[in-house]
Structure formats: structure tokens, C-alpha cells
Specification:
Elements (H helix, E strand, L loop, with lengths): L16 H12 L6 H13 L1 H22 L6 H24 L13
């Protein structure tokens, strides 16, 4: 932004090879059946394809930095915990909004399949 005016809303072109590799990895996660694939699909729905690739590549870069700086093995359990907390916050927010307009949310009965 410059003086309150948005100059560009497009993802910028990069010449960094690491960034290009991370974007390629992020793009390949579209059909992955794990947390990162789900994150990419959610970002694509929310932001559009180019920004979703950039957001997923940024998340991959943060994960790689953490792995390299702490020398810990990769564990998806941390990501799943964060996602579970976000889902719980969303549920509480929806219950509050429903109560404000006079509704009450209930969980559907669980099916054993």
C-alpha cells in the first residue's frame, strides 16, 4: 500500500530457488490427504489458487525453519492440535451467535459405520 492505495493484489514473481521449490511442493499438496493438503484446499477456497500456493509455501517454510533450528523430527500432531483448538473456537463462536438470535445448536447423533 502507498498512501492508503493498494498498488497490487497479485502474488509477486520470485527468483529465489528455495521459494520456487516450496511453491512447487505447496502446489503438489492439493490432493494430499493430510493436514497440509487440507490447509491448502481451505486456503484455495478462501483466497484463490495463487495466494493459496503462497500461503501453503509459507507454512512449509516455517515448518522447515522449525525443524532445522530445533533439530526435532517432524510431527503432525502439533498441527492437528492447533487445528482442533481452532475448530473448538469456531464452535464456541457459532454457538454464541446462534444463542444471540434465539437458536440452540445440538450435535447430530453419531453413527457407527
Amino acid at each position: 500500500m502507498s498512501g492508503g492505495k493498494t498498488l497490487s493484489t497479485h502474488s509477486r514473481k520470485v527468483k529465489n530457488r528455495a521459494a520456487i521449490a516450496l511453491r512447487l511442493e505447496a502446489h503438489c499438496l492439493y490432493r494430499a490427504k493430510n493436514y497440509l493438503g487440507e490447509f491448502h484446499r481451505k486456503m484455495k477456497w478462501r483466497l484463490g489458487a495463487p495466494e493459496a500456493v503462497a500461503a501453503t509455501a509459507h507454512k512449509l517454510a516455517r515448518i522447515m525453519y522449525h525443524l532445522l533450528s530445533t533439530k526435532e523430527p517432524y510431527s503432525e500432531s502439533v498441527l492437528i492440535k492447533c487445528d482442533r483448538r481452532a475448530n473448538n473456537r469456531a464452535e464456541v463462536r457459532l454457538r454464541r451467535q446462534a444463542a444471540k438470535v434465539g437458536f440452540q445448536l445440538t450435535r447430530p447423533p453419531e453413527t457407527n459405520s
